[in-house]
Amino acid sequence: MKVAIVHYWLVGMRGGEKVVENLCRLFPEADIFTHVYAPDRVSEEIRRHRVIPSFINALPRAKTMYQRYLPLMPLALEQFDLRGYDLILSSESGPAKGVLAPPGALHVCYCHSPMRYVWNMYHDYRERSGALTKALMPAAAHYIRNWDALSSMRVDHFIANSFTVRDRIQRYYRRDAQVIHPPVDVEAFEVVPEEVSDYFLMVGELVPYKRSELAVEAFNRMGLPLVVIGGGERLDAMRALAGPTVKILGAQPFAVLRRHYARCQALIFPGEEDFGIVPVEAQASGRPVIAYGRGGATETVCDGQSGLLFHEQSVEGLIAAVQRFKTMTFDPLRIAKGARRFSADRFQSAMRLYLERLTSRSKRSCENDPEAIVPLFAGN
Fold first, then answer.
1. What's the pTM?
2. Which residue has the higher pLDDT, 158 or 125?
3. 3-class DSSP state for residue 171?
């Protein structure tokens, strides 16, 4: 088959781009379509492929201010010429699924989440915006929201990266979705229980919805050591808030992150994520996770086995969870073994099996095959 991979933008290597990277391994001859492309910021695996950017790529400061061009993205997607492709795989979190698939092509969307800034987190984003953005956002979001819902009808099958996202797809698009968790490079981490130190660890971009201030304030009050790794818009605010036992390291290279994962008492994860790769990376290092009990953490952290979940998203709720953690024991090797269920190999196997099933069903649909026809009339 001739395969097209459509991704919202390629300007870094975060979770969505790791999915694209693994799709590239599954389909080494696939072409990639994206709004904005910065080759120096993506992996060699992605660079090996033919990448076709949209006209937005040529606009001023597109590689750094790409999100400002969101209102143009529906138009840009519809300019991609996908004639001749048999399988279209869209990787969706910003707009990507709105491409116009040619007749006879199968369009499968791997959805990291419906666009948060126009759906489930719209009011949070608007509340934090500047005066001009706050004034313009209602009309722009209304237009994008309507287009986003309508463009969901252009997808033949949805895949959700978690059960949390599957529920959002059902709520906002009224579509069912298969759940396939995203790939995590679990083999890249080390397990060294004999070298565990006394500090707790928080990892991730310091943005409002990740609720980093809860962890900083909780460890200020408890007087316990906390190390924070990650950059973002709230980096200076977290440094100002941090007490003497809290170290804010900012963004760090992978070698430093890997070392801190393996030697922390536990990972602190106070926000709600769609899936959340960071807790899996900590578990791949054999370390337990103390996580807010909503969103993707409920699918990756086994309460009492690979960590614990707390259900009040507050400083007091986190303090109580840390105190409970101190009374518990965990098996590092068992935790690391459990993390392997999110490996890249598992992801590729699940994707291959599901896509083979879909393409096989598509081929049978034109034949007089009772197995293909009967489900269409189930219940009649």
1. 0.88
2. 158
3. helix
